[in-house]
Q: What sequence folds into this?
């Protein structure tokens, strides 16, 4: 008997291919719908989704594809620009991707005639994380297996370059103080850099490897979370450079960690993709057990809705959405 591994997702949307990465737009985009981007083997799809949790006349989920961008190579990462606006005339869609060919592409579209992209080259190995500066959207930071963190202008020139001690796994920008950048390395060290002074200002230690993913809590920037080995770990950077809490979470290795953007006590983790059913969990800092456990076939990616306690992950020809109670 074939078990439907997606039966416990609250909502799902069918896609043409495996979904390697999915990202809700974390910025206010000037429209009631929520922008979402997902990437497969050679394309990026931009769509909007509205949920019944936010609009009473919607049954479940209302999803609409706005545009599909041909990418030509597997999409590994997607980051939204704060310049994206649906209420401007013409609208502006702006995002960047990292890809299997070790290049960064920056896409700009007005959803009509203008569809452009620029290619940034410089990394010599796979890119594991990338992010726009959240205020102006005029810079992009990326981290790679090539042991570097690089800052790029929108023209593609490198404006800063930090040498790391091991592969760079995650990069996050401080939401207010845009000279502060967080870089997580596979060897278990998380460093904070002052970009203007181009130097490290603080570091955290997980004391276990491999650290696969880390995330800065944008609701409370004293909190940092990560997954390393089989565990999740949480730091309070005002107290100690060592984790305040840690728990075993995925027995075959933890892969992704993301804080909720709506609630500083909620976060989600996933196991490695490519297993028959990759486990996905939502945790609440006040609860000893996960508040929600789901699974999705293959796929990857993990992203929180901007205002709802709702998580998206990529699956096999599907986007899967889980809603949890606050």
A:
């Amino acid at each position: 008997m074939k078990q439907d591994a997606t039966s416990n997702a609250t909502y799902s949307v069918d896609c043409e291919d495996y979904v390697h990465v999915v990202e809700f737009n974390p910025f206010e985009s000037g429209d009631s719908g929520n922008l979402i981007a997902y990437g497969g083997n050679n394309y990026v799809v931009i769509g909007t989704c509205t949920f019944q949790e936010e609009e009473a006349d919607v049954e479940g989920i209302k999803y609409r594809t706005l545009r599909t961008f041909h990418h030509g190579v597997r999409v590994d990462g997607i980051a939204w620009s704060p310049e994206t606006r649906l209420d401007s005339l013409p609208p502006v869609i702006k995002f960047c991707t990292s890809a299997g060919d070790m290049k960064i592409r920056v896409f700009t579209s007005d959803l009509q005639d203008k569809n452009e992209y620029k290619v940034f080259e410089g990394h010599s190995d796979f890119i594991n994380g990338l992010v726009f500066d959240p205020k102006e959207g005029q810079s992009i930071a990326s981290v790679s297996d090539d042991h570097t963190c690089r800052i790029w202008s929108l023209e593609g020139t490198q404006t800063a370059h930090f040498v790391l001690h091991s592969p760079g796994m995650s990069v996050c920008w401080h939401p207010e103080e845009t000279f502060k950048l967080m870089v997580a390395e596979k060897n278990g060290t998380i460093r904070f850099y002052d970009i203007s002074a181009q130097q490290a200002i603080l570091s955290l230690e997980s004391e276990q490897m491999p650290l696969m993913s880390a995330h800065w809590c944008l609701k409370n920037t004293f909190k940092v979370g990560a997954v390393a080995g089989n565990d999740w770990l949480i730091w309070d950077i005002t107290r100690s450079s060592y984790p305040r809490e840690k728990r075993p979470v995925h027995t075959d290795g933890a892969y992704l960690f993301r804080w909720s953007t709506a609630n500083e006590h909620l976060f989600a983790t996933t196991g490695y993709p490519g297993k028959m059913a990759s486990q996905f969990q939502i945790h609440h800092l006040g609860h000893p057990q996960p508040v929600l456990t789901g699974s999705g076939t293959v796929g990857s990616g993990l992203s929180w809705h901007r205002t709802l306690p709702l998580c998206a992950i990529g699956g096999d020809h599907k986007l899967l959405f889980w809603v949890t109670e606050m």
Remarks:
- The radius of gyration is 18 Å.
- Residues 1-7 have pLDDT under 50 and may be disordered.
